[in-house]
Design brief:
about 150 residues, mainly alpha, about 10% strand, elongated
Length: about 150
Amino acid sequence: MAKIGYARVSSKEQHLDRQLAVLKGVDKLFTDKLSGANTIQNKGATLDVLNLPSMTGIADPNLRQLMTNLIIELYKYQAESERKRIIERQQQGIALAKQQGKYHGRKPQYAEDDPRLLHAFKLYQTGMSDVDVARNTGIKRTTFIRYRKKFDVH
């Protein structure tokens, strides 16, 4: 049976080198340097990813369902893993930008003298709970708690 490899990156700026090193020794190699969002699918074209020639011939419906579920779980795992790698690369980029002084995070939602925030602090100091302050002011409870700690309001 022939070994076929497929290496892909999302943009032309990325490199296939790492993937090509892993795929050394395959009989046929396909590469792709396009975003999945921009690819045009050929109608009627199929890609046989898993070699399961007898899948349609499985008489036992429970076994067929098990195989289908297994394939779906593999796809879900692959998508989840890719999303984690994307987030990891994004965090690395943010850390690098912070080191270079190019990233400072988003602007604070409320200034210290914001009237809504001051009103919320007064309500809290009169004995209202964080939940009640959130309900009365429209400021999210977790946001209010963060600002209360930030400005040391007791």
